[in-house]
Design a protein that fits this description.
alpha/beta, Rossmann fold, 2 domains, two-stranded antiparallel ribbon, binds NADP nicotinamide-adenine-dinucleotide phosphate
Length: about 375
């Protein structure tokens, strides 16, 4: 068994300001990468700027990262980072800016390379990265993954390079500005990570330990998620904790079928990541039940449900409306069958029929 998480994690109120010297010590000039507005709204950008200024560290701000960042968007940001001589990167926001920060750190460090490098297996390093999450889903602050939209392949895919952030500053106060839909979608994404990692050929006792603790932590918040209101600081803090644990688990196992299927929905139907994966989670658990997965009953109970039917109703309430046509199903199944990495993560036999059952279970 192997377990390796090199990211220094600070999970506390005031994490950024408390550890400003450590963030600033990553380099001389920071390239701050954010989405369009949440980093300002949450106060996270303000904290990062204060942290840098109090340590006399220079910075430039790039605030144009959109949801599901594309390879083209990374290259545009890279031009700015290269032009200003940045030597470390700080990502602030949800998974989109945090993933973008990693890919930009790779491309800025390797100045003379072009976008093809992102998807080539090469031994090259990235600039140091610090991450500040403002959603409770991706765990990107501790994972080595950066998932980008590939317009050339009409899907989303993680870059080939494993880039672990050096520092993650996790502070629940940034979540209180997020709309209910963002909290629900990202909390469901974290649950998918936990379940897809738990039922996974690469899972170990270490990753299962993270998942089990993550299940129980996540379950404490299921009523608030269902009601979609009255979230407390403690809810945000626990959901962030669960998503970071899930990130540590998928760093070792990767994700599985719900993630593999979701990329089609996000690319073709613009469905947010957490919602797109959540749609397939009841079907994936039903597949585990039918495959007689030994821990199936304990997982359902650990995540706070009596049975799968109750879980399916919960997911339907949280994700809201969506439409999957027969054509979508055919295309998703074909895309999945052509993805040996995701298929090989499944601990039981899976083929076209099982994939169709997983997709159709929620309809
Ligand atoms: P996101 O795409 O980063 O953000 C979704 C929306 O929420 C954006 O409009 C964003 O606004 C807003 N937002 C974020 N935090 C907010 C806050 N605290 N208050 C108000 N609004 C807020 O969402 P995400 O679900 O966290 O990330 C999804 C991406 O992560 C996908 O690309 C997915 O593939 C990737 N992902 C990566 C990993 C990994 O291991 N690296 C794992 C799973 C998923 P702004 O645009 O203004 O910021
Ligand atoms: Zn995910």
């Amino acid at each position: 068994m192997e377990f390796y998480i090199p990211t220094k994690v600070y999970h506390e109120d005031g994490a950024v300001l408390n550890h400003s010297a450590e963030i600033a010590s990553l380099g001389r000039k920071a390239f701050i990468v954010t989405g369009k507005s949440s980093a300002v709204k949450t106060g996270a950008l303000d904290d990062v700027i204060k942290a840098l200024e109090s340590n006399d560290t220079d910075y430039i701000l790039y605030d144009k990262i959109e949801e599901n960042p594309s390879v083209e968007a990374i290259m545009e940001a890279t031009d700015t980072g290269r032009g200003h001589g940045a030597d470390f990167v700080i990502g602030i926001g949800g998974g989109s800016p945090m993933d973008a920060a990693k890919a930009i750190a790779l491309m800025v460090q390797n100045r003379d390379t072009a976008e093809e490098v992102l998807y080539k297996e090469l031994k090259i390093k990235a600039l140091p990265v610090a991450e500040v999450p403002t959603t409770c889903g991706t765990g990107s602050e501790v994972t080595p993954y950066a998932i980008l939209t590939r317009n050339d392949k009409k899907t989303k895919q993680s870059i080939k390079h494993r880039i672990y952030p050096s520092v993650a500053c996790i502070d629940a106060k940034y979540l209180k500005y997020a709309p209910v839909s963002v909290i629900r979608n990202t909390a469901i994404d974290a649950l998918c990570h936990l379940i897809e990692s738990y039922f996974n050929k690469k899972s170990t006792e270490y990753t299962k330990m993270l998942c089990k603790y993550g299940f129980r932590t996540w379950a404490k918040n299921r009523v608030a998620l269902f009601d979609g209101k009255d979230f407390t600081y403690e809810n945000y803090n626990q959901l962030l904790f669960a998503s970071t644990l899930a990130g540590m688990a998928i760093s070792h196992t990767g994700t599985s079928i719900p993630h593999g299927l979701s990329y089609y929905l996000t690319y073709n139907k613009n469905i947010p990541h957490g919602k797109a994966v959540g749609i397939f989670l009841p079907g994936y658990l039903n597949f585990m039940k039918k495959s007689l997965a030994s821990d199936y009953n304990s997982v359902i109970s650990d995540i706070g449900f009596d049975d799968l039917e109750e879980f399916k109703l919960f997911i339907k309430c949280c994700v809201g409306e969506f439409c999957i046509t027969d054509k979508d199903i055919c295309e998703m199944v074909q895309e999945m069958l052509a993805n040996p990495v995701k298929l090989s993560s499944v601990p039981y036999d899976i083929g076209e029929k099982e994939l169709r059952d997983i997709i159709e279970y929620i309809r």
